[in-house]
Amino acid sequence: QVQLVESGGGLVQPGGSLRLSCAASGSIFSTDTMGWYRQAPGKQRELVASITSGGSTNYADSVKGRFTISRDNAKNTVYLQMNSLKPEDTAAYYCYARKTRVTYWGQGTQVTVSS
To answer: Could you say which residues of the chain have pLDDT below 50?
Structure first.
């Protein structure tokens, strides 16, 4: 089986930073794409950022210039550096990994931006 383990969430003040990590392990040698979705109460799930095995990145307009996604292909691990955090970034963040036609999901980590 494949597991995605997320870490790095927490409570931070507006303008602060957090770094999320997501590591894929188990019966998988590599992933095609990894990234994060987020979901806040009363809102639809949205794609925050993604990165392909080749290093191509994609960001939601709301986080461009503030968030940076990166990956270590050898470790099947993806990182999301979140800077200049805003209250509207508050959500549960879910890591995902796609391999061919199968998508795997992490357990989620809560990010709360509040004074």
So the answer is: none
